[in-house]
Amino acid sequence: MSVGSNEPIVWTRDLQLNDRFTVRFNNEDPDKLIMEMFAPVQGYVSIGFSPNGAMQGSDIVMGWIDSNGLAHIKVSVKEAHEIIV
């Protein structure tokens, strides 16, 4: 299975986070994560990945459909900042 191929994606996890937001992913390959998320929204959907549950140092993936119907994905990798007191 690879992104962009004609092979169907087999989802290893299907998470219904609430009655409106679903995340599906396949993490069988240790080098990549294939993911789908959807919600009936006007605006954007996003998800964050954090090593410790905090926003600082997390990675964020955001997706939206523009007024022309084109899909957009933005990935933001946050770098941890050390606070010296």
Question: What attributes does this structure have?
Answer:
mainly beta; three-stranded antiparallel sheet; 85 residues
Question: Outline of this structure?
Answer:
The chain is an all-beta fold. It is built from no helices and six strands.
Strand order of the largest sheet: 1-2-3
Give the SSE string: EEEEEE
How far is it from the N-terminal to the C-terminal residue, by CA? 49 Å
Q: How many domains make up the coordinates?
A: 1
Structural class: mainly beta
Largest sheet: 3 strands, antiparallel
Gyration radius, in Å = 15 Å
Mean pLDDT rating: 81
Beta-strand proportion: 35-45%
Q: Helix segment count?
A: 0
Low-confidence stretches: none
Q: What's the overall geometry?
A: globular
Number of strands: 6
Helical amount: under 10%
Describe this protein's structure.
The protein has one domain (13-77). β2 (22-26) and β3 form a beta hairpin. The protein has strands spanning 13-16, 22-26, 34-38, 44-49, 59-65, 71-77. The protein has a three-stranded antiparallel sheet with strand order 1-2-3, with no helix packed on it. Strands 4-5-6 form a three-stranded antiparallel sheet, with no helix packed on it. It has no helices and six strands. The chain is globular. The model has no long low-confidence stretch (mean pLDDT 81). 0% of the residues lie in helices and 40% in strands. With 85 residues, the chain is an all-beta fold.
Which helices and strands appear, and what pairs or packs with what?
Layout: E1 13-16, E2 22-26, E3 34-38, E4 44-49, E5 59-65, E6 71-77
Antiparallel strand pairs: 1-2, 2-3, 4-5, 5-6
